[in-house]
Amino acid sequence: MSAFKFEVWPTEFRHITQHFGANPQNYAQFNLPGHEGVDIMAPTRTKIFAVTGGRVKMVETNPANHPYGIHIRIEHTDGYETIYAHFDEAAVQPNATVQAGDLIGLSDNTGNSFGSHLHITLKKKDVQIGNWPRGFMDPTPFLLPLMGWQRPAGPYVDGWAYTTAVVVQNELAQVSPGGINLRTEPSVNASLIDLVPGGTILIVTGPPRGFYTPVRVPRAALSNTTPEPP
Question: What pTM value is reported for the model?
């Protein structure tokens, strides 16, 4: 079994903004079944770090040459490769050796991108998972141990969260940017309890039901505003 893992969070902001496999309608033009990586919060010209050690395979400095814009590819042990996309500028050269946590560039939204962020892709040589081509694999399991979440304190409000709008790690979850509607039952037609702000850490209280996950929300995090329909 491979010992490969991400050792360092790749940006200065521990928040995922788009998940692996999301929005398949936007990626059909690239012959992909969905978003082939994970997007992470990274405002313009903030630091991007190597998630683990390796050799810089490629540095693309012309933003017009690829949908990733200015980007870096790093080879790792056991056939793994990470790609860091949409940079403002790269801070490494091809064939350079990098260690976990080394600065490799500054973020932006070059290439096929809307708003500054880091797109990180994980690939593995000679591997095909499901209908994903070219060795693409979900980096989420490698990122989640680095999230640094802590169980929130009570008192709590119980409800249901739309599953694709939260990132789940074991018994905890984090609300995606923009917030979620907390509902009384696992249905879009259920009564609205409140709006839970983006970034809030929740406690997962059971398995998903349909499109919803049961959660426990710290009352202090609730906005106490009238939520809008999803």
Answer: 0.77
